[in-house]
Amino acid sequence: MFDSGSTTFMVLATSLVMLMTPGLAFFYGGLAGKRNILGIMIQTFVSLGITTILWVTIGYSLCFSGGLGGIIGNLDHAFLRGIPFDQAYDNGKYPVYIFIAYQMMFAIITPALITGAFVNRVTFKSYLIFLVVWQILVYYPFVHMVWGGGLLAQWGVLDFAGGIVVHATAGFAALASVFYVGKRRDTFSPPNSIPLVAIGTGLLWFGWYGFNAGSELDVDAITTLAFLNTDVAASFAAITWLVIEWSRDRKPKFVGLMTGAVAGLATITPAAGFVPLWAAMIIGILAGFICYWAVHLKNKLGWDDALDVWGVHGVGGTLGTILLGVFAYKSINGQSGLLDGDPTFFLKEVVAVLGAAAYAFIFTYVMLAIINFITPVKVSESDENIGIDESIHGERAYDEGAL
């Protein structure tokens, strides 16, 4: 009944995207100070559990059911009601359950991206509330509007794998959270384990092939294009970041190389299946350059985005969506961009991504203020000084004296 090759590919792609969440935990855990490793890692890992529960109960239904042209779906498929396990996905090549699982992995990692901005400053209880509410009122509406046949999709907005839906919303939500919780008391907090950052980067880069190539939701030429574009953009961005940092600091920085790669991955995400290979090279170079300077600007302005979520994901996702509007070619995947003679599509992409970023920023700031009435959002001074690993979770990442 189903195509075994397509089904196997989607199972593999789903597994790769799932692997990105532990990869993100390692990436953030290595960048965090040694007193806050477990605190940042549990905020990432807990999304695997909570988001899965949320997704199968109401999330999938709110994203992928309901009328066309709306802002959010309905609850017709709550608890996956009315969806037999052997029902085919729209293309008829694999069961719809693997599509549900694939999209669930995106939902798991998106709010987890935000956590790097407020490392060691947010209580776990408030984060759990944030994790649930942010998905329902930010992530789900944009999934529905862009990928679920909603308002933006009807308007003609495209987003191959999450420049708007994932990176722009998470990145600007991260910036809002930084403004709300304020600066760390100890801003000198060097990475506790650069090898752990390297492991996380490797897992993210590896998983990103499922993130981008899998978003074709089929096995065809666009799948392979998205795969290669992903690697090329990440590589060009990594080397661009390395060269800029080397020329400025007179030393080639390993963390900079890895950060540049992640910036390239985030930036190519919305465009991976719509642009030619040469455009992926340009997108990678621009990602390395612009995201580097966004981080530099953040530092100059004193915004304490501890792990550069805004500069890498927020700016990268926004930049990639705009560049999709520039470099999309009809001969590749049916949509012309600015260079291919369609300035209207370019303007739609700009308006959509800036609107998503603004909404995510404003909503996140207001939501944190409301949560603070329920339970304190920011940790106490003593807890921050001790570190949230011990003060909140009662655990330590390493034995005393190991570091």
Offer a few descriptive terms.
mainly alpha, single chain, Ammonium transporter fold, 403 residues
Structure description:
It is built from 15 helices and no strands. Helices cover 69% and strands 0% of the residues. With 403 residues, the protein is mainly alpha-helical. Helix 1 packs antiparallel against helix 2, helix 3 (96-114) crosses helix 4 and helix 3 (96-114) packs parallel to helix 6 (163-181). The model has no long low-confidence stretch (mean pLDDT 95). The protein has one domain: Orthogonal Bundle (Ammonium transporter fold).
Short description:
This protein has 15 helices and no strands. The chain has 403 residues and is an all-alpha fold. The chain has one domain: Orthogonal Bundle (Ammonium transporter fold).
Secondary structure tally: strands: 0
Kindly report the average pLDDT value: 95
C-alpha Rg, in Å?
20 Å
Q: How would you sum up the major sheet?
A: none
The CATH level-2 architecture is identified as Orthogonal Bundle
Query: What percent of the residues sit in helical stretches (DSSP H or I)?
Result: 55-70%
CATH homology superfamily name: Ammonium transporter AmtB like domains
Termini separation comes to 56 Å
By secondary-structure content and strand pairing, the structural class works out as mainly alpha
Number of domains: 1
Order of helices and strands: HHHHHHHHHHHHHHH
- Total number of helical segments? 15
CATH topology: Ammonium transporter fold
Low-confidence stretches: none
Overall 3D form: globular
Q: What's the CATH first level?
A: Mainly Alpha
Beta-strand portion reads: under 5%
